Amino acid sequence: MDKDRGKRLAAEEAAKHVERGMTLGLGTGSTAAHFVDIIGARVAEGWPLKGVPTSEATRRQAESLGVEIIEPHETTVIDLAVDGADEADPQHNLIKGGGAALLREKVVAYAAKKFIVIADKSKRVTALGAFPLPVEISPYGWALTVAAMRRTLVEQGFQNAKLELRSIDGNSVKTDGGNLIIDCSLERINDPARLEKALNAIPGVLECGLFCGMTDMIIYGDEDGVSVST
Ligand code: 5RP
């Protein structure tokens, strides 16, 4: 399967929901990058569009394409947010955070009047959990927070959970906000909303990568076209 073509087609379909004058939440990752690209092309055609980026990488891309950037603290209105996902289930629950941008992505998606997810079809699953769940935590007392997360996961029935501080070449990965990511291998999540609530209740946890009850539409693409789930 040509995943990149699927990502592009999904992004093109999402762009049909963009109207002149909108303030857009711009997601992060290789799929969202296609959407930003299309928005840049619209701006070049003279469309008045503004973008709220969910990462520094997206900000750089949008700026390079001439999209006017609005800081999240400068607006209370986001008309439409479009972002990718690492996994999506039939109830539109998501795992996000593979690109370490989940806190900003969730703030923007939650604020948006409409949240559309774009993904290649490999992201569609019957149950979440094969992709390790990213959780963004404060660096302060991070080992204490991880211990609390482990206790919570056992209480939630994940006796075999494996928690790992995300790192590259021995260096812990820092999010754009200077936070850490803990990847939790859980295998299968039967009640994502319950787990999201339990993890987010732990002091030191800034956000977990479960996005439940937030997604209005998922557009899946493959080389043959798109399918839309509402
Ligand atoms: C970043 C994300 C991304 O949306 C997710 O990782 C999907 O990325 P890609 O479109 O590159 O597969 O949540 O934090």
TrEMBL record:
Binding site for substrate: 28-31, 83-86, 96-99, 123
CDD domains from the UniProt entry: RPI_A
GO molecular function, one term: ribose-5-phosphate isomerase activity
Keyword DNA repair attributed: no
The keyword Transcription belongs to this UniProt entry's keyword annotation: no
Cellular component aspect of the GO annotation: cytosol
Top-tier EC class: isomerase
This protein's UniProt keywords: Isomerase
Top-level lineage group: Bacteria
Transmembrane feature ranges: none
Recorded catalytic activity of this chain's protein: aldehydo-D-ribose 5-phosphate = D-ribulose 5-phosphate
Listed EC numbers: 5.3.1.6
A biological-process GO annotation: pentose-phosphate shunt, non-oxidative branch
Pathway info: Carbohydrate degradation; pentose phosphate pathway; D-ribose 5-phosphate from D-ribulose 5-phosphate (non-oxidative stage): step 1/1
PANTHER family: RIBOSE-5-PHOSPHATE ISOMERASE
Similarity remark: Belongs to the ribose 5-phosphate isomerase family.
Function: Catalyzes the reversible conversion of ribose-5-phosphate to ribulose 5-phosphate.
Protein name, as recorded: Ribose-5-phosphate isomerase A
